[in-house]
Amino acid sequence: MSIATGQVQGVGQSLLRPDGTLKVTGEFAYSSDLWLDGMLWGATLRSPHPSAWIRSIDVGPALAMPGVFAVLTHQDVPGVKFYGLEHKDQPVLAIDQVRYQGEPVALVAADHPETARRAADAIVVGYELREAVTDPRQAAFDPACPQVNPHGNVVRHQPVRVGDRFTADVVVTAEYEVGMQDQAFLGPESGLAVPAEDGGVDLYVATQWLHVDQDQVAPCLGLPKEKVRLTLAGVGGAFGAREDLSMQIHASMLALRTGKPIKIVYGREESFFGHVHRHPAWMRYEHGATADGMLVYVRAEIVLDGGAYTSSSPAVVGNAASLGVGPYEVDNVWIDAYGTYTNNPPCGAMRGFGAVQACFAYESQMDRLAEACGLSPVEIRIRNAVSQGSRLATGQVVDTPAPLAGMLRELAAMPLPGPGSTDLRALPGGVAQTTHGEGVRRGIGYGVGIKNICFSEGFDDYSTARVRVELLGGEPHVLVHTAAAEVGQGLIMVKSQIARTELGIDRVTIVPADTTVGSAGSSSASRQSYVTGGAVKAACEAVRERLDKLRAGGASLAEVLAAGPVEETREYRHRPTFPMDPVTGQGDSHTQLALCVHRAVVDVDVELGLVKVVELAAVQDVGRIMNPLALEGQIHGGTAQGLGLALMEEIQVRDGKVLNPSFTDYLIPTILDMPPMRLSILENPDPHAPYGLRGAGEPPTLSSTPAIAAAVRNATGLALARVPIRPDDIALAGSALAG
Amino acid sequence: MADIRMRVNGSIEKLDVEPRVSLLDALREHLGLTGTKKGCDQGACGACTVLADGERIVSCLALAVQYADRDITTIEGVTSPLQRSFVRHDGFQCGYCTSGQICSAVGMLTEHAAGAPSAVTGDLATMEIELTAEEIRERMSGNLCRCGAYNGIVAAIEEGIR
């Protein structure tokens, strides 16, 4: 990777992270590092039960403890007692009942974090246990099942109906499951709430979307929005888990009650209960095709368990339905996608957002179909691949480049790694191997993913940027101010690069994100380079236009700026999207679609069930490369999280209770698990997007999972219809290739 | 409470801590050195890695009183070419693991220079172990990076040792 060293590092160059020096010296202030003299520590008492009535809460023992300043329950919520991204159905603190293990019940503020924790533990809650609803299909389809949510147990049912031919020469049918994945950011939920003199609160927090936090926090505090001011603190990873609120309202309530700054930091175990997860999915797919492998129809039933509260489940269901057949041309589609309420942990946004689960199923189906038709996995995908002009299952026509067939050809033509070594150190399991490698088999698999970029289904999706050019020390200087959350993805570079490119000025400062500028929307849906990038570009263009007018008489930039700064604020919106028809699922629901394809090479010890991913190769079309170095990082990172879902990551839930809320029991890929990658990055511009770019962070998370699963199947001959694939699934199944 | 002294980043610090306080909490909450991160508080993620007399340790599993009169270096006290190469090769995204990664890499290089083999070292008789990508991966495998910047981390360390 080349690193740009020129003067003006604009769009397309590997501008290094302006926050990089702070991050490698330990000076970058994450939300958990914030500190104010005189601050108190907040702690949250959570329900140990997945479903129970609350018959009593005795806060007396907690209040009596020295060092405790406040103990709050739902009766102390100053305003609206519920919040939520799509439906305001989640209580700030449990009211009379709890619906999931870990639901917040009471809050404590104390002068020491351990005092706060001990005081929370001293609160006596009288629970009357109920049977937990934990089977999402029973929740959705059994009329006798207790209602978890007052609106019923189905969050959303989204059908897709196209065509009427549901017979074919070749039919493959299977059921698939995807386990509950955790975002597992390394920097747990944390922040600092500071009471203000005007009766409001200043909140410093790690989040993905400052303004949607503000929209939810202010009503619960009974305050007008302008009295709830948010500033982004350093974010230790997000991946969807910071789209919902965690400690924001709680810390603010304690701050307003005590009149002191309140810091709340979750520990790792609490973090597993402090945010939503990726929806686990049960999916039944039926693919029909001609004998030569041309798709005739796809039928699918997709059940996504949303857990106790709504979060973003409706949009997740929309993605699973609209992208449920993948990037393939098929004239007859019958999909029913459901999101359910249960007493399992709440699920919502995680990188890939509904498209991940469906992708595992439809790609597994394409492999089955390939086998049934006697075709290679690559060939059957090429034969059915969408391209520009194709009609998706929703009726939406792909109106920008979508060179999937070419991407697959390029991927298949990439060199393969050499044969596996019998050196113990190179075997799956490494030196912990107890064999001589006699059970090790090589496997190769392919995966294709299609992801919607930006918010879909008619959402008013926009971002705001304020750009100011002024003289500082006699030199022109650009200030770029947005509320967009830098969560590690590198938006801070992209904004700076756009300003440099549009204004030709090298000195650019990115103002910290806060709510004194308009909303930037969420750092999710791979959308910030597109939407906030578009807003920065538009604001820069407006500034440039004014500067050009001021300089029409021949004045220099410095002379013009000597009279004062030039500042413009712009909102940017992508092309409008439209809701899916509630009966047929038809509609132009997405504004941009992005493709990524993966090839995985694995070595599997079929007797021990150990898998080593030897190499991952990917081809992704990003429209326009904004920053090569950061882009590669996004593809590596997305791929690594897909690898985790394929082979190791699952929150194990039994009877509504999480069994493994720790990093010793919830495994995420290490540097040994993540292999080197071969990348080919294409630039087929989307004419509707700024610079022609496509969002890039999520697509690799989709396609790496099915590619790895397919490679393990290829090595073992096993069906493996569930991810993560556990060692037991291989070793105890008895491999068709073993012996 | 225990009164202890500790050299931290070159300065003698006096600490009055309960015997059960971890080195991590002592650094972060008593000395205000928040560069060292708490990711899991149980030794699984490596974000809290610091150097004790030059050896890398996970400070969340160490008691402050164990390290009385020892020489502790946190990320705030590290000056290493690795820091530049982590930035140049995008060896992080969110950066939360980075303090631990860099302290771990510094400690790893010291171990390597002393001839310490790893689980993937082939010839255990040699003192001249080449730090291949495989060696780097093995020796850095105690530090998680959820952003998945692992390939950048390997590249950064490869450049940092040249």
TrEMBL record, chain A:
Single GO MF descriptor: iron ion binding
All residue ranges annotated as the Aldehyde oxidase/xanthine dehydrogenase a/b hammerhead domain in the record: 25-131
SUPFAM superfamilies linked to this entry: CO dehydrogenase molybdoprotein N-domain-like (SSF54665), Molybdenum cofactor-binding domain (SSF56003)
Pfam families named among the record's database cross-references: Ald_Xan_dh_C (PF01315), MoCoBD_1 (PF02738), MoCoBD_2 (PF20256)
Protein known as: Carbon-monoxide dehydrogenase large subunit
Automatic annotation (TrEMBL), chain B:
Cross-referenced InterPro entries: 2Fe-2S-bd (IPR002888), 2Fe-2S-bd_dom_sf (IPR036884), 2Fe-2S_ferredoxin-like_sf (IPR036010), 2Fe-2S_ferredoxin-type (IPR001041), 2Fe2S_fd_BS (IPR006058), Aldehyde_Oxdr_Iron-Sulfur (IPR052914), Beta-grasp_dom_sf (IPR012675)
The organism's place on the tree of life at top rank: Bacteria
Entries under PROSITE patterns matching the protein: 2FE2S_FER_1, 2FE2S_FER_2
Pathway: Alkaloid degradation; nicotine degradation
Coiled coil stretches, renumbered: none
Residues of the 2Fe-2S ferredoxin-type domain: 2-78
SUPFAM superfamilies: 2Fe-2S ferredoxin-like (SSF54292), CO dehydrogenase ISP C-domain like (SSF47741)
One Pfam short name: Fer2
Annotated CDD domains: fer2
GO molecular function terms attached to this record: 2 iron, 2 sulfur cluster binding; metal ion binding; oxidoreductase activity, acting on the aldehyde or oxo group of donors
Assigned keywords, A-Z: 2Fe-2S, Iron, Iron-sulfur, Metal-binding, Oxidoreductase
PANTHER family according to UniProt: OXIDOREDUCTASE WITH IRON-SULFUR SUBUNIT, OXIDOREDUCTASE, IRON-SULPHUR BINDING SUBUNIT-RELATED-RELATED
Protein's recorded name: Carbon-monoxide dehydrogenase small subunit
UniProt organism field: Acrocarpospora corrugata
